[in-house]
């Protein structure tokens, strides 16, 4: 009886634990924000995730920028919610697939630390944050081979001229997870799943804006590029077998 009870407890523990890949992703995010440092206004290095105001970007396994966002609630918390919490709109509607994210980059704004959302100075901070998001979004979109990013919305417009601050960039996936996820066939299957989910979301909603449709178009372009690269990598048309398309029908055709 004791052995059976132990087995039941083991099964319960296994069920309560998140899947390995999810657990590794959380650890990767925590490690990035815990170990990467960034100077505050006093030139004292702090954990980069501790800054409240800033912009962040996600990159896929090809180093392609796929999403840009801003926060004034703490960089580590905002990024963690994006990549591990289905309640964020981008993940819930399949705009962003956390499994596509290999690296993150952040642009902290130490000069706005301590500013609350209701303070008068918060207006200037918000204008600067909008300008930084627009600058990062525009630059990364132009650098993308697809000239597109998966954001459903464009950043808020801004006439404020700013200079991008230093950023910090790093991987959030372990070597073990990378082996599981970066194979092109695995990525294609995952990309096709996300495209299907996104298309279903679009079909079930009365859309007032074209943002989701733009995301769908971008995802299909990315999937086509990956499929073409994979096909070429295995030999392309030269590797396709010649012969009857359906041998059973051919063999029985004369009988």
Proportion in helices: 40-55%
For the record, what CATH class of the domain at 18-174 applies? Alpha Beta
Poorly predicted parts: none
What is Rg?
Answer: 23 Å
Class based on secondary structure composition and strand pairing: alpha+beta
Give the strand order of the largest sheet, numbering strands 1, 2, ... along the chain: 4-3-5-6
CATH fold group of the domain at 18-174: GIY-YIG endonuclease
- For CATH, the homologous superfamily of the domain at 18-174 is named as GIY-YIG endonuclease
Shape: globular
Strand-residue proportion:
5-15%
Order of helices and strands: HHEEEEHHEHEHHHH
Mean pLDDT: 86
Number of strands: 6
CATH architect. name of the domain at 18-174: 3-Layer(aba) Sandwich
Q: What is the overall number of helices?
A: 9
End-to-end separation in angstroms reads 66 Å
> Biggest sheet, open or closed, and with what strands and sense?
4 strands, antiparallel
Describe it for me?
This protein is of the alpha+beta class and 255 residues long. The chain has a domain of 157 residues: GIY-YIG endonuclease. It is 49% helix and 11% strand. It is built from nine helices and six strands, in the order H-H-E-E-E-E-H-H-E-H-E-H-H-H-H. A four-stranded antiparallel beta sheet has the order 4-3-5-6, sandwiched between helices. Helix 2 packs antiparallel against helix 3 and helix 7 packs antiparallel against helix 8. The protein is globular. It starts with a helix and ends with a helix. 27% of the residues are buried. The model has no long low-confidence stretch (mean pLDDT 86).
